[in-house]
Specification:
By secondary structure, the chain is α+β, with helices and mostly antiparallel strands. The chain contains 13 helices and 15 strands. Strand 2, helix 2 and strand 3 form a beta-alpha-beta unit. Helix 10 crosses helix 11. The chain is globular, with a radius of gyration of 22 Å. The chain starts with 5 loop residues before the first strand and ends with a strand. The model has no long low-confidence stretch (mean pLDDT 96).
């Protein structure tokens, strides 16, 4: 085996339930120390420190402050943008640098304290955390939302993902109740996994009916109990090293987990620009490339963790890879973002650490996936207790294996159009507030439109609206739909 072969040798996770809890910098330090100790590596020996963007607080120098606390002087440093694929991209970059011989070790860590922020907010107190960035930098978007989407109030994932969910439902000919029932059946087993996970945020097993009925809608047809929970206090870290360094550290073979295959692909950045709202070619391409590079297939892995911020992310992954949503292996090793916790951009560190612990206990292969933005970015990682895969397969893995072509977006439109997907936004009181449609226009492009009338919102939730011909009028600011 090449002595530069990267392997994961250290893992750590932390969930804080006492409120208020520590700030992100404290959590970064805690999991970093735990992960390096698990790796038998002193923090001062780290060649690279990479942090996942935290939504909780804007530090003046996130990596610098952590390195200072750890007594480390890494020659490579990175702080990610906002994205659910950020941990995958950092891990992939670290593995590629190790494989190229540029570094011997890397720490990748993430932390959120959004539950603590909420506790301070509810108490009417300011957050007393350290080293604020002055002035505050712009939010860490990789790419801001399209002006037309912003104008129509469409930038929250709970609404964009719901639009894609309704498009898939209609394409399959499912009724509203059938989609909800299948969603409950798919996600109920995830709650059982979370109930057994000591790091999970929600540790109560739920029945399918409890998940889709008896709790309020957020972005219809999604209920609160079937979407990611972001306001958590959680942190995780992993340490990667070259096999040469792992040998020097005396890390037993049974505690090493190898990144056998890794791949990244992109769908369109805007929901309306997707050629088909209900499915993804990019997911299939990412999965195919990752497995090919790993020298394995989907049937070879004995554990899965599919990114689960919303049901459509799970369903599109199952559709593209050919997995049964009720696969006997389960779809998650943590419980998923709605139950184990969805700490903003950091969830994949938790799924990766959990997968590594599982593979240490039960040697074999596992798949961990990530999703970024509005089902735009897709990263697939095949982990294994056995080194292997295509020679040099990690060195060019960061280049997208597929980038979807965009359908044109028509910002201002008036005339008849056909609904391609839709959602109804609900307030905290559970009441419907407004509808948002993606419509096919006669020119062949797509447009956004809002629905304001109460009777139309009720109608949209009572029957299938996809395929409905609607009248759209631009009022000078937004497109308004009626029927």
């Amino acid at each position: 085996m090449d002595p530069r072969t990267p392997c994961l040798i250290g893992i750590a996770q932390r969930t804080v339930r006492e409120q208020p809890g520590p700030e992100p910098l404290d959590l970064w330090e805690e999991v970093a120390r735990a992960a390096t100790a698990d790796a038998r590596l002193t923090a001062g020996r780290l060649d690279s420190i990479q942090l996942v963007h935290t939504d909780s607080w804007q530090y003046d120098s996130p990596v610098g402050r952590l390195a200072e606390r750890l007594g480390a002087v890494p020659r490579h440093r990175a702080y990610s943008k906002v994205s659910g694929t950020a941990p995958h991209l950092l891990i992939g970059e670290a593995a590629a640098r190790i494989a190229a011989g540029e570094i011997d070790s890397a720490l990748v860590a993430g932390a959120e304290a959004l539950a603590t922020r909420r506790a301070y907010r509810q108490a009417g107190e300011s957050v007393p955390w350290s080293h604020p960035a002055v002035p505050k930098p712009p939010y860490g978007w990789e790419r801001p939302p399209h002006p037309a989407a912003l104008a129509h109030g469409l930038f929250m994932p709970v609404h964009t993902y719901a639009i894609m969910e309704t498009a898939r439902r209609a394409a399959l000919g499912l009724t509203i109740e059938e989609e909800m029932r299948e969603r409950g059946r798919m996600m109920a087993p995830m709650t059982e996994v979370a109930a057994a996970n000591p790091y999970a945020w929600r540790r109560t097993a739920r029945t399918p009916g409890e998940l889709v009925h008896g709790n309020r809608f957020v972005g219809w047809p999604y209920t609160r109990n079937t979407v990611a929970v972001m306001e958590v206090d959680q942190a995780a870290a992993v340490v990667l090293a070259s096999s040469r360094l792992a040998d020097r550290l005396g890390v037993p073979a049974g505690r090493r987990v190898y990144l056998r295959g890794w791949a990244y692909a992109e769908d369109t950045w805007e929901v309306a620009a997707r050629p088909a709202l209900g499915r993804s070619e990019a997911i299939g391409r990412a999965a195919e490339a990752a497995f090919k590079r790993a020298g394995l297939g989907p049937d070879d892995v004995h554990a899965l963790d599919l990114y689960s911020c919303f049901a459509i992310a799970l369903r599109q992954a199952c559709d593209a890879v050919g997995l049964d949503p009720l696969d006997r292996r389960g779809l998650t090793v943590t419980g998923g973002l709605p139950y184990a916790g969805g700490p903003a951009s950091g969830y994949v560190l938790h799924s990766t650490a959990t997968m590594a612990g599982l593979l240490r206990a039960q040697p074999g292969h596992g798949l961990v996936t990530g999703v970024g933005m509005h089902l735009t970015k897709h990263a697939y990682a095949v982990w294994s207790t056995e080194p292997g895969g295509l020679p040099g397969g990690l060195l060019d893995a960061a280049a997208p294996v597929f980038v979807a072509e965009e359908a044109p977006i028509v910002p201002a439109f008036s005339g008849e159009a056909v609904v391609a997907g839709y959602t109804v936004a609900h307030g905290r009181d559970g009441a419907p507030e407004r509808g948002v449609l993606v419509v096919d226009v006669p020119s062949g492009g797509r447009a956004y439109a809002v629905v304001a009338r109460d009777e139309l919102l009720a109608d949209a939730e009572s029957r299938e609206l996809v395929g409905q011909v609607v009248r759209v009028a631009h009022d000078g600011e937004v497109n308004v739909a009626t029927w």
